[in-house]
Description:
The chain is an alpha+beta fold. It has two domains: about 1-165, no CATH class; about 200-375, Heat Shock Protein 90, CATH 3.30.565.10. About 65% of the residues lie in helices and about 10% in strands. The protein contains nine helices and seven strands, in the order H-H-H-H-H-E-H-E-E-H-E-E-H-E-E-H. The chain has helices spanning about 1-40, 45-75, 80-105, 120-200, 205-220, 230-250, 275-285, 330-340, 370-375; strands at about 230, 255-260, 265-270, 290-300, 305-310, 345-350, 355-365. The strands form two sheets. It has a five-stranded mixed beta sheet, with helices on one face. Helix 2 (about 45-75) runs antiparallel to helix 3 and helix 5 packs antiparallel against helix 6 (about 230-250). The longest helix is centred in the middle third of the chain and has 77 residues, at about 120-200. The radius of gyration is 38 Å and the shape is rod-shaped. The two termini are about 25 Å apart.
Amino acid sequence: MALGFNHARQRLLLIGGLFVVCTLLGGLSVLQAYVCDVSMGEPVALGPLLRQELKDWYSLGLISIGVIWFAGRNRLESRRIGHWTAIHFAGAVVFAVIYCVFTSWLVAGERSVMHPGKILTFSYLIRMYWLHYVLLYMVMYWLVVFGHLGWHYYHRYREREVETAQLQRELVEARLEALRMQLNPHFLFNTLHAISALIHESPEAADRVVARLSELLRLSLDQTKPQEVPLSEEIAFLDHYLEIEQTRFAERLRIEKDVPPDTQQALVPYLILQPLVENAIRHGIEPREEPGLIRICACRKDGRLELRVRDNGDGLPAKKNHHIQEGIGLSNTRSRLGHLYGKDFRLELVNADGGGLEAFVEIPFHTRETRSRGEAG
């Protein structure tokens, strides 16, 4: 239905455009003849001049609609250029004949502008138009055909642009969904591993972890979640995960969060923080016997949102040119950020001042309200 509406809208625009063009050209023709006659000191019969020129140009516009229809039925094809040329050459002759007859019929009975007092007859107009203007009419036919051809290729180009953009968007959404779903078995495996470690040492703690895990699985497998959610929702999901880890590590794990109110409505990729925190626990907290600290911070700065996850572990090795081997969680996170923001993001793992490792993410700051206004504009 939308496609049919677009085609109908295009036809109305085309007819309206022809009417405007013919009116302008008729007005210019009247102005040119009027200025020419006045400059030569000849009397000007403005009424007959205006009627004749507008009848002439409006008849051209009306017949051009038929030419456009004919051109649409006989479009240029790379393998049939000769056939296309022959058909439209015949069409140009037919157009010239119809134009001469139709215009002569419309103008017949008018007083001559060049010879005041003379009535223009149908036979006189036919001979004059055919002898003096037939080649011009055929050229006009080809101008209409090439104009329609250009219009057709322009719309095909725009339609392909829209189709390509839609296919790219669908491809990106499919890749993002695949990446997000890849986190689920990875996260589930790690959590089950934690339960197996607790089940013999602390059955009650294992029960609590299973209860938290069921809630986490419900949230992470929710197919209705968009690719981006407010930071407050992401923090709420993270809290469920941290309950599991704090049950596992007890007093060995302490969590600090600094998430100002002006950042909580910022849109972030769903499940963006959990892999970063998991990486900090696995490499910064788990290998140590000392109490561990993980600090989660958010900051709005110069139209950007900065997210930091910092631990107090040993950090990266001090070797120069040390290559960081990213696991599934981090490589997945980097891929998702690339699909969502192109090159307009940062994801870095750096040694923090005072020790430990810091995962740093920077993305454009936007909320659901600002995005809606941007799409509406």
